[in-house]
Amino acid sequence: MHTTLPSDKKLWPEARLISARWWYAPLAFLLSMIARDAATPKEAVPILIAAFFIVLFGNVWFSFFLRKAASPDAFLKWRTLFNGSQIALDLAFFSLVLVFSGGIYGISHVFFLVPVIAAIALFGFRGGIIVAALSGLLVLFSTLLTNGFFAFSFLGVATAQTNHTLLFALGESSVLAALYVLAGFFGGSVLRLFERRDLLLQGEIAKGQEQVKRLEKLTDEFDQSAKLLVRRDIELTSANEKLTQLDRMKSEIISIVAHQLRTPLSAIKWTLKMLLDEDTGKVTDEQKGLLAKGFESNERMVTLINDMLAVDHLESGKLKYNFIPVQFESLVEEMVNNLLPIATHKRIVVEFSAPQDPLPKVKVDPDKMRDVLQNLIDNAIKYSKEGSTVTVGAEMGEEAIHFWVKDGGIGIPDDAKGKIFSRFFRAANAVSTETDGSGLGLFIAQSVVKRHGGKIWFESVVNEGATFHVTLPLTP
Ligand code: ADP
């Protein structure tokens, strides 16, 4: 039986039964009037009329009671009694109709299906079976009554029958009783199926609702995260703008300082050169030595400033490239010759192994490529031991020109190998061997080579030497 009722009373099963009774009660009454036969006693008519009015009155009362019920919950405690009364009234009425309208040989016994179905709707499976069994008993009882089984004559309806006829009628009644029980059983089972399906559906709905809640929670969290991300994005954008501004300021400062330093440094350079060349008068050898040291230091300052400017240009994207076809080996030869005086000064032999056949022309920016070659050869000389040999070579590889510089110098320690091309990095053994150096040369070289579409790498064993390689495609 339903333990909860919808708030709309019209949807209650008891309300539907009351409405249905307005139709089936008059129908049953009419049938009983029509189906009366000669055997039906005269007294049957007032009894049936009275019963019909009792049913009508009962239905008015049921309907009134239901309308007055304060709430579904308040009604629940009366429900069993209320619905039991409805079923009992119907059973009593249909029994009378059955008795007075030809018994089981008429058609009024079908009315007993009404309370059976109503009981299923109101009380569920068990209620349906009980009312079905009760209907069967009532039909049996009516049959016994109408067949004069009881010793007393009930309002004259019982006519004495032969045993055979009685048995036959009882057989028919039993079939009807079994039919009611079957109907009760079948109806109840269908109801149970529906109830089970309802339960399953409710379970699914509950699960669905839970998932919806979980999704809502997730959506909320996503919302929060999205808001956070937007906020972070705004913060990052503004931080980025600040950094770009700072970077621009740094660039400007480097550029201004470098240009401001260049003029006095170049004045110093020419003054020292004039003194060294004895344009202003004789200088002693000792003085010359001192002046040469000053000149060298000045040159290093110029190189450092140029390197810093180059790095700044690289990073700010201001560096413009001008690619033209060049004879690469000539470029290498030029740089070797330029650096020979420094090498000779250190008693280092620089060998250039020129290619047997001229190399195909390669498109490079000659000025920037000169810087790269100069840096690599200069490093090889700088980090070589006195009296050793530096070998420089260029050849045509499979698809690119291959240039290399090999020295037998201090080499690169394993822990420094990964950082050699980083800005301002100098390995510890390089710092202790050669105090001068900015750690910018290889950084610039790598960036220039990359811009040419080439590669730069090295192999080295510490204290045995290093070989630097560059490959350049014929067109960048
Ligand atoms: P710098 O030579 O001015 O220090 P570079 O950028 O040219 O700067 O070189 C970075 C570092 O790489 C050097 O300080 C040195 O530690 C290492 N290095 C470069 N070339 C050689 C070489 N031929 N032999 C040994 N170490 C080298």
Key features of this structure:
alpha+beta; two-stranded antiparallel sheet; 5-stranded mixed β-sheet; 476 residues; single chain; binds adenosine-5'-diphosphate
Give structural notes:
The chain has 476 residues and is of the alpha+beta class. The protein has ten helices and seven strands. It has helices at residues 13-34, 44-68, 72-100, 113-146, 163-276, 285-316, 328-345, 366-382, 428-433, 441-451, and strands spanning 324-326, 349-353, 362-364, 389-396, 400-407, 455-461, 465-473. The strands form two sheets. It has a five-stranded mixed beta sheet. A hairpin with a 3-residue loop joins β4 and β5 (400-407). α1 packs antiparallel against α2 (44-68), α2 runs antiparallel to α3 (72-100) and α6 packs across α10 (441-451). The chain starts with 12 loop residues before the first helix and ends with a strand. Residues 151-156 have low confidence and may be disordered. Residues 375, 379-380, 383, 407, 409-412, 420, 425-427, 430, 437-443, 466 line the site of adenosine-5'-diphosphate.
Brief summary:
By secondary structure, the protein is α+β, with helices and mostly antiparallel strands. The chain has helices at residues 13-34, 44-68, 72-100, 113-146, 163-276, 285-316, 328-345, 366-382, 428-433, 441-451, and strands at residues 324-326, 349-353, 362-364, 389-396, 400-407, 455-461, 465-473. The strands form two sheets. It has a five-stranded mixed beta sheet with strand order 2-4-5-7-6. A two-stranded antiparallel sheet has the order 1-3.
